[in-house]
Amino acid sequence: MSDGSERTVRLVEMANDIAAYFQAEADPAAGAEGVRQHLVRFWEPGMRRKLLRYVREGGDGLVPLARDAVEGLDP
User: Fold this and answer.
1) Which of 44, 42, 69, 54 is nearest to 5 (CA)?
2) Of 62, 55, 72, nearest to 16 (Cα)?
3) CA 52 → CA 27, 39, 58, 70, distances in Å?
4) What pTM did the predictor assign?
5) DSSP 11-75
6) What is the pLDDT along the chain (75 residues), one digit of tens a residue?
């Protein structure tokens, strides 16, 4: 992880776990939207902002579906 903080590592792990659930969607865009909606509904804004900032800095460790979802978030 480029930022190295334990909190960021945990956010990446959680986002990847959510993406694993939505990976079953036949349409990758629908899967990414499912992940994005989950993040909006259940994550605090600060958590989303931290993960979005992390993606903009490279997003190492995020699976593609999670990355696509995070890139679709409003800051």
Assistant:
1) 54
2) 62
3) 23, 11, 10, 6
4) 0.89
5) HHHHHHHHHHHHTT-SSHHHHHHHHHHHHHHHS-HHHHHHHHHHHHTT-TT--HHHHHHHHTS--
6) 444 589 999 999 999 999 999 999 999 999 999 999 999 999 999 999 999 999 999 999 999 999 999 999 986
